[in-house]
Design a protein that fits this description.
single chain; 256 residues; alpha+beta; Beta-Lactamase; 2 domains; five-stranded mixed sheet; 9 helices; elongated
Length: 256
């Protein structure tokens, strides 16, 4: 065993000298790059030379005391493990949130399938947003003729019937042109049109155009949190909600 270690030591010294000659020498004769490269290529160096460990210490970043190399390695590994754990928790929370959203879309589809008239479609949509999507506030604005819903609109805070020529709809022109949901803070004119003047409790919102170019109307979901809906969030589930709501509303109004 001693003979093998002796050979390993001699071979290591030879390799080290060869590496050192290939790197830029520091003023003291050996560059830090050469030492780092050698240790990377020989991770068992300190195992073969245990006496060196007794003299090694690293300054503690939080003060003037020192910690052993092993303690520092443990601290680095612990920090890396904490980061991995945070990443894992983020993935788990994302999966749970997606599962809740998927279940909400499923419940909406089931309720819409059971709706027999336009009023039932509107009620199914409002119920799902409250119970499955936990909406702090929500509003459905129809910009197409819907005489079958006039009675419901007069007594509902959820449904509003708008004249297609209403100037307030101009605030949503870019939304209609894009045909995709928008998330985040909304302009005062949009918020006042959807949720009523002075509705400051709506911190953020998701606004969905219904139908091609919003020809059916708008579905808006408001949150009291300013961070709940933000421009960087995925809109996949919102697009599915908009497609289901638009299709069901169009079919029920055409049939009525």
């Amino acid at each position: 065993m001693d003979e093998r270690r002796g050979r390993d030591s001699i071979r290591g010294h030879t390799e080290f000298m060869s590496i050192q000659r290939k790197t830029t020498l520091a003023s003291d004769g050996i560059s830090a790059e050469a030492v780092a490269y050698y240790l990377q290529q020989h991770p068992d160096f300190f195992e073969l030379n245990p006496r060196l460990l007794a003299n090694l210490s690293l300054p503690h970043t939080a003060g003037s005391t020192t910690v052993s190399l092993i303690e520092r390695q443990v601290a680095v590994l612990r920090d890396g493990n904490a980061k991995l754990e945070r990443n894992l928790n983020d993935l788990i929370e994302t999966a749970r949130r997606n599962d809740r959203l998927s279940n909400g879309v499923h419940q909406l589809a089931l309720r819409l399938l059971g709706a027999e008239d336009p009023a039932a479609v509107v009620n199914a949509l409002g119920t799902t947003l409250r119970e499955n999507f936990m909406a702090d506030s929500a509003v459905l604005v129809l910009r197409m003729p819907a005489p079958a819903l006039e009675a419901l609109a007069s007594e509902s805070g959820f449904l509003h019937l708008a004249d297609p020529a209403d100037p307030g709809l101009k605030a949503f022109q870019t939304l209609f042109e894009s045909g995709r949901p928008r998330c985040g803070h909304i302009r005062d004119a949009q918020r006042d049109f959807l949720f009523g003047p002075g509705n400051d409790q709506v911190g953020s919102a998701a606004v969905l155009p219904l139908g091609a170019n919003g020809e059916i109307g708008i579905l808006a979901i408001g949150s009291s949190s300013s961070e709940h809906f933000h421009p960087g969030m995925s809109t996949d589930f919102l697009e599915r909600v908009g497609a289901l709501a638009g299709t069901a509303l169009q079919a029920s109004l055409d049939g009525g």
